[in-house]
Amino acid sequence: MNNLTKIYFIAILVLITNALSMPVLAEGPPADLDVLRQAVADYFPYEDRQYRMSSDDLYAILHDGDQTNDPFVLSVQTSKQYELGHIPNSINIPWDEITDVAQLQTQIPKDKLVVVYCNHDVHSAQISAILNLLGYNTLDLFYGLEGWTQNKVAIPDHFDPDCPCTQEGGYLLDTQAYTVEPTNQFPELDVSGSTTEEIIIAAANDYLASERDTYSTIEPCDLNDILIDDDSDNNPFVLSLQWPEGYTKGHVPTAVNIPRWELFASAENLSKLPTDQPIVICCYLGFTSSQVVAILNMMGYDAKVALHGLCGWTTDSEITHFDITDPQNWRDYPIEGTAVNAVYEETTAETAIEETTEESVTEESVAEETVEESATEEPSQLATDSSCQQIYMVQYSDMLSEIAEKYLDDIMAYNKIVEATNKMHATDDSFANITNPDLIEINWKLCVP
User: Fold this and answer.
1) Which among 257, 222, 254, 251 is positioned nearest to 316, based on CA atoms?
2) Residue 221: pLDDT band by 50, 70, 90 thresholds?
3) How far is 331 from 342, CA to CA, in rounded Å?
4) What is the pLDDT of residues 183-212, one digit of tens each?
5) β-strand 138-141 against 114-117: which pairing, if any?
C-alpha cells in the first residue's frame, strides 16, 4: 500500500469514526407541534420583552382618576380564595373550573389590556400565556395577590421567611455547566385544527381539561430531596431558564440552561427535552417557569414549576435578583373579601380557608374577639386602618407635596401624611417612619389620611 493510499484509507476511517460518534438528531416535530412551537417562538421573541405588571403600577393606574385607561383585571383564584380576598372590582373565573378556552373568550375583552392574577402567580401566568398566544393583550400581576397584600387570612400560605431555603443560605447551588444533545423524540400532539388558532385552542383545551393542578408544581424541598437521594433513576430533568450569565454564577444542581427566548426558537432546542422523564423548570421567581410549563404540557411534555423559582432555593440575591424575605418587596394594598376584617390565627392554610369561608366574620365579633385575646392574636396586617383613607407605596421621583396635592388637593397637606404615617408606624413597622419630609425612599409605605 503506497503512501497516498494509506492517507485515503486513514481519512475514510476518521470520517466513519466521526459519523459513528455523532449524536443521532431527532426527526422533525409533527406538523401540529411545530405550528404551536412557532407561535410560542413569536410570543417569546427576545430577552427583555415584558410579560407582567407590578402591583405598584396596577394600583397607580387604577387610582389615577382616569377610568378610560383601566385594564380588565381578571382573577383566576379559586372561588374560596376569591371570597377570602381579591383586588377590588376584579372579575373571577376560577382556575380550577376552567376546562375550555371558550370560558375565557366569552368574558374577556380582546381590545383592551387584561391583567391576570391568582394567589401566587402560577396559575395566572399559565392563563396569561394561553391568552397571549390567542392574540389577547395580557400581562400577569407580579407575584399575584401575594405581591399585592400581606393579609395572612387572604394568603394563609404566604411565602414563609422561615422556609428551609432561608436557613444557612438555602439549598446547594451548582456552578457546573450541563449540556444535552438534541436527540430526543418529540411528543405526539393529537389535536384537530387547520389554523394556528385552532391548534392552539385544541392543545390548550386538552391541557385545561386534564388533572393539571395535581402535577404542575413541585416544592423546593421536595425537589431537593429527590436530587440528593441515592436513587438517580427518579431524578427529573431540571431545566433552568436563567440568563446565561446568571446560570454560570449558580443554579439548581444538574440543571440544563436554555433561556426562555431560545427554548422554542428552533425544533433542535426543543428536542433537547425528554418525553420519557418529568421536567422541572426553574427561573428566578416562578413566573416564567409557569408560562413555559403550561406551553410544554400543551405540547405533551410532563412539566412542573419549581415553586418560587431560585428564590425558593437560595437567599443569595446575586443569584435570585430579588430578596423574597425582605418585607419591603411585598405590598400592602387594599383588598375586598372576608379576610379584611378577620383575625389571623397561626393555623394551616386549609383550616384558615375553611374557617373563614364557612363563617362570615362580622366586624362586631372580630372586635370582641380581639379585645378578649389581644395578648395572643393580632389583626391582619393588611386590614386598612380607619385613619388611612388609602395606603400609598412611594414610587420613583415621588415627593410628599405632590402626593398631598394629588390625594388631598393641598400641596401643603404633606404634614398630614407624615403625621398619619408615623402614627401607623408606632403600631405597625411596615409603615415608614418619616423624619425628614424632603427625604422619602422608593417602596416606603405611606398612610394617606
Assistant:
1) 251
2) confident
3) 19
4) 999 998 888 888 999 999 999 999 999 887
5) parallel
Question: Which of the residue ranges 82-91, 265-274, 360-369, 390-399 would you say has the lowest mean pLDDT?
Answer: 360-369
The confidence score (pLDDT) of residue 441 equals: 76
Instruction: List C-alpha distances in Å: 353 to 26, 158, 217, 344, 421.
Output: 48, 13, 21, 11, 31
End-to-end CA distance of the chain: 99
What are phi and psi for residue 61, nearest 5 degrees?
-70, -30
Q: Residue 249 CA to chain centroid, in angstroms?
A: 22
Would you say 299 and 262 are in contact if contact means Cβ atoms under 8 Å apart?
A: no
Predicted local distance difference test score (pLDDT) of residue 411: 77
What does the alpha-carbon distance between residue 229 and residue 219 come to, in Å, rounded to a whole number? 16
Average pLDDT on 312-340 reads 84
The number of beta carbons lying within 10 Å of the beta carbon of residue 408 is 16
Alpha-carbon dihedral angle through residues 336, 131, 269, 234, given to the nearest 10 degrees: 50
**Complete domains list, the chain, with CATH:** 44-158+337-383 (3.40.250.10), 165-320 (3.40.250.10), 385-449 (3.10.350)
How far apart CA 288 and CA 259 sit, in angstroms, is 10
Is 104 in contact with 205 (CB distance < 8 Å)?
no
- 56: Cβ contacts below 8 Å, ≥ 6 apart: 331, 393, 395
Cell of 168: 444557612
**Higher local confidence (pLDDT), 89 or 388:** 89
Mean pLDDT in residue range 337-356: 61
**Residue in the block written with cell 440528593:** 228
